[in-house]
Design goal:
This protein is mostly helical and 158 residues long. It folds into two domains: 79 residues, DNA polymerase, domain 1 (Orthogonal Bundle); 61 residues. The protein has eight helices and four strands. The protein has a two-stranded antiparallel ribbon. A two-stranded antiparallel sheet has the order 2-3. Strand 2 and strand 3 form a beta hairpin. Helix 5 packs across helix 6. It is elongated, with a radius of gyration of 21 Å. It starts with a helix and ends with a strand.
Protein backbone atom coordinates (compact mmCIF):
# COMPACT_ATOMS: atom_id res chain seq x y z
CA UNK A 1 0.00 0.00 0.00
CA UNK A 2 2.86 2.40 0.78
CA UNK A 3 4.28 1.84 -2.71
CA UNK A 4 0.88 2.55 -4.29
CA UNK A 5 0.42 5.81 -2.39
CA UNK A 6 4.04 6.84 -3.02
CA UNK A 7 3.75 6.27 -6.76
CA UNK A 8 0.48 8.23 -6.88
CA UNK A 9 2.11 11.13 -5.04
CA UNK A 10 5.01 11.24 -7.50
CA UNK A 11 3.07 11.87 -10.70
CA UNK A 12 3.85 12.14 -13.56
CA UNK A 13 6.88 9.78 -13.20
CA UNK A 14 5.31 7.65 -10.47
CA UNK A 15 8.69 6.98 -8.86
CA UNK A 16 9.17 7.70 -5.18
CA UNK A 17 11.29 5.79 -2.70
CA UNK A 18 10.10 5.76 0.91
CA UNK A 19 12.66 4.07 3.20
CA UNK A 20 11.15 1.89 5.95
CA UNK A 21 12.35 4.32 8.63
CA UNK A 22 10.38 7.15 6.94
CA UNK A 23 7.10 5.33 6.27
CA UNK A 24 5.22 6.83 9.23
CA UNK A 25 6.49 10.33 8.46
CA UNK A 26 5.27 9.90 4.89
CA UNK A 27 1.87 8.41 5.77
CA UNK A 28 0.91 10.27 8.98
CA UNK A 29 -0.14 13.62 7.44
CA UNK A 30 -2.19 12.04 4.64
CA UNK A 31 -6.01 12.06 4.76
CA UNK A 32 -7.68 8.74 5.64
CA UNK A 33 -9.18 8.53 2.14
CA UNK A 34 -5.70 7.87 0.73
CA UNK A 35 -5.86 4.29 2.00
CA UNK A 36 -6.46 2.05 -1.00
CA UNK A 37 -10.08 0.91 -0.88
CA UNK A 38 -11.40 3.63 1.43
CA UNK A 39 -14.05 5.38 -0.61
CA UNK A 40 -16.23 8.39 0.16
CA UNK A 41 -18.73 6.60 2.44
CA UNK A 42 -16.11 4.73 4.47
CA UNK A 43 -13.91 7.82 4.55
CA UNK A 44 -16.80 9.90 5.92
CA UNK A 45 -17.45 7.27 8.59
CA UNK A 46 -13.79 7.28 9.67
CA UNK A 47 -13.64 11.10 9.73
CA UNK A 48 -16.91 11.36 11.68
CA UNK A 49 -15.34 9.02 14.27
CA UNK A 50 -12.63 11.66 14.74
CA UNK A 51 -9.83 10.31 12.56
CA UNK A 52 -8.87 12.75 9.80
CA UNK A 53 -5.33 11.63 8.96
CA UNK A 54 -3.54 8.32 8.72
CA UNK A 55 -1.50 9.45 11.72
CA UNK A 56 -4.71 9.83 13.76
CA UNK A 57 -5.56 6.20 13.00
CA UNK A 58 -2.00 4.94 13.48
CA UNK A 59 -1.67 6.45 16.97
CA UNK A 60 -4.96 5.09 18.33
CA UNK A 61 -5.21 1.94 20.46
CA UNK A 62 -6.79 -1.19 19.03
CA UNK A 63 -9.46 -1.10 21.75
CA UNK A 64 -10.50 2.45 20.84
CA UNK A 65 -10.47 1.68 17.12
CA UNK A 66 -12.69 -1.36 17.68
CA UNK A 67 -15.02 0.72 19.84
CA UNK A 68 -15.27 3.50 17.24
CA UNK A 69 -15.07 1.59 13.94
CA UNK A 70 -15.51 -2.10 14.68
CA UNK A 71 -13.00 -4.86 13.91
CA UNK A 72 -12.08 -3.40 10.53
CA UNK A 73 -10.85 -0.25 12.32
CA UNK A 74 -7.85 -2.22 13.58
CA UNK A 75 -7.09 -3.42 10.04
CA UNK A 76 -7.38 0.11 8.62
CA UNK A 77 -5.01 1.36 11.35
CA UNK A 78 -2.44 -1.28 10.39
CA UNK A 79 -2.52 0.03 6.84
CA UNK A 80 -2.22 3.58 8.19
CA UNK A 81 0.98 2.48 9.97
CA UNK A 82 2.33 0.97 6.76
CA UNK A 83 1.78 -2.59 8.02
CA UNK A 84 0.57 -4.40 4.93
CA UNK A 85 1.31 -8.11 4.57
CA UNK A 86 -0.66 -8.57 1.36
CA UNK A 87 1.32 -9.91 -1.58
CA UNK A 88 2.16 -7.49 -4.36
CA UNK A 89 0.60 -8.56 -7.64
CA UNK A 90 2.96 -7.24 -10.31
CA UNK A 91 0.71 -8.28 -13.19
CA UNK A 92 -2.98 -8.76 -13.65
CA UNK A 93 -5.27 -8.70 -16.66
CA UNK A 94 -6.27 -5.19 -17.60
CA UNK A 95 -9.89 -4.30 -17.04
CA UNK A 96 -9.47 -0.96 -18.76
CA UNK A 97 -7.09 0.83 -21.05
CA UNK A 98 -6.38 4.52 -20.93
CA UNK A 99 -3.91 7.03 -22.21
CA UNK A 100 -3.47 10.64 -21.30
CA UNK A 101 -1.27 13.54 -22.21
CA UNK A 102 -0.72 16.26 -19.63
CA UNK A 103 0.57 19.57 -20.90
CA UNK A 104 3.06 21.44 -18.75
CA UNK A 105 1.06 24.66 -19.28
CA UNK A 106 -2.59 25.32 -20.06
CA UNK A 107 -3.23 25.22 -23.79
CA UNK A 108 -5.51 27.84 -25.30
CA UNK A 109 -4.30 27.57 -28.90
CA UNK A 110 -7.23 26.25 -30.94
CA UNK A 111 -5.03 24.61 -33.61
CA UNK A 112 -3.05 22.73 -30.96
CA UNK A 113 -6.26 21.47 -29.37
CA UNK A 114 -7.65 20.45 -32.77
CA UNK A 115 -4.51 18.36 -33.32
CA UNK A 116 -5.40 16.33 -30.21
CA UNK A 117 -8.82 15.25 -31.51
CA UNK A 118 -7.49 12.08 -33.24
CA UNK A 119 -6.17 10.83 -29.88
CA UNK A 120 -9.34 8.87 -28.97
CA UNK A 121 -9.12 7.12 -32.36
CA UNK A 122 -5.57 5.98 -31.59
CA UNK A 123 -6.66 4.64 -28.21
CA UNK A 124 -9.64 2.95 -29.87
CA UNK A 125 -7.36 1.37 -32.47
CA UNK A 126 -5.17 -0.11 -29.75
CA UNK A 127 -8.27 -1.44 -27.99
CA UNK A 128 -9.52 -3.15 -31.15
CA UNK A 129 -6.04 -4.48 -31.95
CA UNK A 130 -5.98 -6.09 -28.49
CA UNK A 131 -9.24 -7.87 -29.36
CA UNK A 132 -11.37 -5.87 -26.96
CA UNK A 133 -14.45 -3.72 -27.34
CA UNK A 134 -14.60 -0.05 -26.51
CA UNK A 135 -17.34 1.35 -24.33
CA UNK A 136 -18.62 4.93 -24.16
CA UNK A 137 -16.05 7.68 -24.40
CA UNK A 138 -15.87 11.44 -24.20
CA UNK A 139 -13.38 13.27 -26.36
CA UNK A 140 -11.65 16.61 -25.97
CA UNK A 141 -14.19 19.30 -25.23
CA UNK A 142 -14.01 22.77 -26.72
CA UNK A 143 -16.44 25.68 -26.80
CA UNK A 144 -15.90 27.68 -29.97
CA UNK A 145 -12.28 28.75 -29.90
CA UNK A 146 -11.96 28.53 -26.11
CA UNK A 147 -10.96 25.25 -24.54
CA UNK A 148 -12.36 23.97 -21.30
CA UNK A 149 -9.84 23.48 -18.51
CA UNK A 150 -10.30 19.70 -18.56
CA UNK A 151 -10.14 17.46 -21.59
CA UNK A 152 -10.88 13.79 -21.08
CA UNK A 153 -10.84 10.83 -23.43
CA UNK A 154 -11.57 7.44 -21.99
CA UNK A 155 -12.39 4.02 -23.39
CA UNK A 156 -13.72 1.26 -21.20
CA UNK A 157 -12.56 -2.23 -22.02
CA UNK A 158 -15.49 -4.61 -22.11
Amino acid sequence: MVAKIASQSAKPNGLKYVPQAEVRGFLDPLPVRRIWGVGPVTGDRIVSAGFETLGDLARETDAELTSQLGDWGVEIAKLARGEDVRDVEPYRDAVSYSEEHTFMNDISDHDMLESMIPHPRRVGGKTVAAGRRAGPHRGAEMEGSKANSARTAGLSVA
